[in-house]
Amino acid sequence: MAGVFMISDHHFGHKSIIDFESRPFADADEMTETMIDRWNAVVGKDDKVFHLGDFSFLNREKTTAIVSRLNGYKTLILGNHDRGRSRAWWLETGFQEVSEYPIVYGGFFFLSHEPMYMNKHMPYVNIHGHIHGQKYEGNHYFNVCVEHWDYTPVAFEEIVRRVVPSEEQ
């Protein structure tokens, strides 16, 4: 059975993010190769990956080369750094699906780039990126930025295990 994974904020080709977020890489090339290796170590060819934005700062040719090396069926939810390029541009780089808006997944999870407003009375969980090493408190938010997950996509099953009380699973 194919798995489902989520991740965000790779910032491929963004050399300055190494310093901004204290990433443990010598340069952008090492960062790229490590993140590709870690993606493919957990994601199989038949798995599905939701990338929650800010994928690449590189040109179309270099971005396409990276996407083609990544396992799985890839859906991109556009992040603030992705929105300067059209949906068509991202589809041409190899993403199978591209959304300009958040996606409701499993009737219970809101997948978005930026965290969405969620109050404590809402029975939903917002899986998001954008805030990198920061983290919102509570069970209504789940940050899948690469900095929190050792630059590796997170299995949806793991997210559910962490946010849904065990008697509800």
Automatic annotation (TrEMBL):
SUPFAM superfamilies cross-referenced by the UniProt entry: Metallo-dependent phosphatases (SSF56300)
InterPro entries given in the database record: Metallo-depent_PP-like
The protein, known as: Phosphoesterase
Organism: Paenibacillus oceani
